[in-house]
Amino acid sequence: MIEPPLVSPPTLADAYRLLAESVYRPIAGGTDVLVQLSGQLGPPPDRLLDLWRLDELRGIELDGDALVLGALTTYSGIRRSAVCRDLLPALVEAAATVGAAQIQNRATLGGNIANASPAGDMLPVLLATDATIVVGSIRGERSIPARSFWTGYRQTALRPDEIVIRIRIPLVADRQVRFRKIGTRRAQAISKVVVGLSWVAPTSGSPWRTVRLGLGSVAERPIRVTATEAFLEGRLPTPDTAAEAAQRVAAEIQPIDDVRSTADYRRAVTARVLHRLIREAGSW
Amino acid sequence: MSVIGADAPRVDGPAKVTGAAQYTADIVLPGMLHAKVLRSTMPHARLVRIDASAAERELGVVTITRDDLTGMDPYYGPVVKDQPIVGIDRVLFAGDVIAVVAAEARDIAEEALDLIEVEYEPLPVVTDSDAAMAEGAPVLHAARRTPQVTFPDMKSVHFQTDSNVCSVYHVERGDVEAGFADADELFEDVYSVPTIQHGHIEPHASIAYWEPSGKLVVHTSTQNPSVIRTQLADLFGLPETSVRVIVPYVGGGYGAKTYPKLEPIVAALSRKARRPVSLVISREEVFMTAVRHAASVRIKTGVRCDGTLVARRVVATYDTGAYADIGPRTAKNGGYSAGGPYRIEHQDLTSYCVYTNKPPAGAFRGFGVPQVCWAYESQMDDIARRLGMDPVELRKRNLIQENDLFVTGDRLVSVGLDKCLDQVVEAIGWRGIESTRPIETDRPGFVRGLGLAVMIKSTMTPSNSAASVRLNADGSATLLTSSVEIGQGSHTGLAQIVAEAIGLPLDRVSVTFPDTDFTPYDQSTSSSRTIFSMGHAARQAGIQIRDQLLEIASGRFEAAVEDLEIVDGSIRVKGVPAQSLTIPQVFTTHFGAAVGSLFGAFDYQTTGGLDPDTGMGKASAFWFLSAAGAEVEVDTRTGKIRVLRAVTSVDVGKAINPRQCWLQNEGSMLTALGSALFEEMLFDNGQPVNASFLDYMLPSMEDFPDTFRSMLVETPHPEGPYGAKGMGEAGLGPVAPAIGNAVANALGGVRLRDLPLRPERVLDALTKEGLQ
User: Fold this and answer.
1) Per-residue confidence at A81, pLDDT binned at 50, 70, 90?
2) Residue B132 · residue B164 · CB < 8 Å
3) CATH 3.30.365.10 occupies which residues in chain B?
4) What's the predicted TM-score (pTM) here?
5) Class of B24-123+202-251+256-286 in CATH
6) Segment (H or E) for B365
7) ipTM reported for the complex, 2 dp
């Protein structure tokens, strides 16, 4: 295994300066980067920029009507956070499905976002909650909506000198968020399908508003299925709605066959999971 | 108090829990080099050119390529000499060994691999056994030879050389066609099981060096040191006394560490380097070193309306990959077991061991039986369903019984299968035919089902195990044995047997690690034979010591030997506790001082073997019989299966250490659960695509059933020590079909015939049945 040289800046400002000077591969918990290095998946980076010491990128807090998570927030951190459990349990649920305990202690939300795997477990939840990814560089900060952050297969809107610094998730009154992951086994499995769904409804009898449906492992990047969302907008979670939405989402996605599943399965099960989530919401 | 039947704590427990236990990769020898293997990127190719000179020149490493092996016969193999130390003219699977490098450090060796130039000329590829057996398929091994020393039980296997069929085994009884004609109903199906890997935690590891005298010393993570010694002696033209094989703790193997794996490579490298060489392979390489046979099983059964099985024909094809390894024996074992543990008047059983361009398949816990058990036990439930019978009643009507003749002609003894099945029926709450119906849940789309299955399996026969026991003057004893402590608890179980045989407290007995210079011959730590065979030898050796102690004490007490007993290391006159001697006192009586040692030694050979023409004779020294039950929940919307409960019952003859037996069963159950639901090595035109723990799915702790129960039946075996039989593999075979039957029952009879029961397959099957 080739071990590229690694720099560990003590402050975010130092990190920005280094990134402005040359190209680094940022590394936080290392749960993706080390696998790529030891598995020789692609050419190794020339240099690594260790973000682990940057306490500025830690912490989970409430900022007005938003939940703000530092990029170095680990999955264990999310699972242990009372704020997350109270305000966004779907995020906690998603964090609990990622890898094993050892992985959850090291792997970070920012890393999951920057790694841009189409199967990234957290990403459909971020899509479903209209999260904003805040990135920073020596040139300053900018906010990128989750829906335009992943631009292609393992491609992001990050510029070479930028890193993810925090994630801002708006908290919306009367919003429901659901998460489902279908993997081969019950733990430590890369997903076949990941679903994040949210809608706003003051009561269980209210029509759905602001529907968001984020999907993982069914395209070359995490996606929102806007046609299906548009169909669900303003509807009640009835059997007809569920059946029609399931058909529409199946038609809207173009998954592929790979080592973990088949296109047919992904299409069918995405539709069925959506159907089940709507049925559960409608309690029928 | 007897230590037999006691849940004695593991003697190796503290060392393993504290990390003090030494494994092969922990061994560091002065001047030791580290090796890496250059592996083929092509599944089948002619090796046009191999040039390692740049690696040697630029990095000063030592390499072995075919050019280094010109003065010797470089082929080895326990049954067929078909596997070269490094590629000679061709490579036969993606991952095959082309060259090996030894360097001062592992990363230098790795760097050196990039400097070795290889030119391939691709050849046509066959990756499944059907294609390999088809007319016009490329023949992978045109010339095959058997080694000088092979195993007596291989005489019953027919070797072929004109096709990819390596070997064929056949046995028949009665007239199968007449039986089919006589039957009321016929069932004919094809079942399949994919290539899987053992998933042992410790990867293969070996270290070799040559002493100035010309003696080859190997430290290795192997299950059969005696066979490694024989094979290395054969390869390097040495007497067996010039090969010394030492085995420390082994971190699991499940069959993957039987027969030569890395030993020939390190031996060749260290001979050239004139320094010790260590090779520890990566997880990815483990997938290229040993796998379980994929198999396709065609099974046809004729049944009467009353449920009597009349006739069965099975053709089982085992994909042995690029090299035979122990595949011919695996296929033979599966072949005669394919009728199952049933009285069937007419049987016609054939198995093929077939070469393909895949990693070599060999021994895997269950040894060829789980593949056929998947087929016959799944079909058994289909038969019951069509006849409208309770599957338990159908099985009971046909189960083999004590003293029955097996298809091979074996007279069966120690057959507690009825009891095993009864225990499973009770444990999972089976209530007759009603239990074959789906169990509704309060969650829409989720259904549950119960299922069960039984199994019969043989052990390697004939085979040899020799033990030697040494009693010291302080009353401590050492068992010298070549049995390997591979995690199964053999050090504990064998110590219990020796303690009981002599009459010592358990903590006075220690068990050696194998070292072929000092420990006597043992055929193999496999086939669940250690407690039965080595236990038998160890017990007899212990009894010899006991007899000597009693003889000496009888002179001292002037009492007859029959009036003496040994309890907790004191020799005393029965009923007269005051009249007792400690072991040091016995030694003083005998040797004049508390010095010297007493010896016992015993060589146990099980007898048997099968006739080459008829496939009949005595297949097994003892028989494994077991039953399993499962409750599953199927999510019919996603096809995902969850095992809620799994239970097994195994006839162990006599449990030397019940807790260890339960743990062995639990390991078997978990392995079987993985193979039933998740595990499958995938290949894309011969290229492995999921050969890592990232994508090869072993069951996780979350997949453990909520109820996981292991039960024992004790039907004593006349030759087993204290009645004990082997049991390490027994719990595995019936678990996958029990899960499959539970899934079929949950789905109202929808039958999946291909493992694993992936959610994609479940959904496909439901769609085909029009149930979606």
Assistant:
1) very high
2) yes
3) 294-460+611-768, 463-605
4) 0.96
5) alpha beta
6) none
7) 0.92
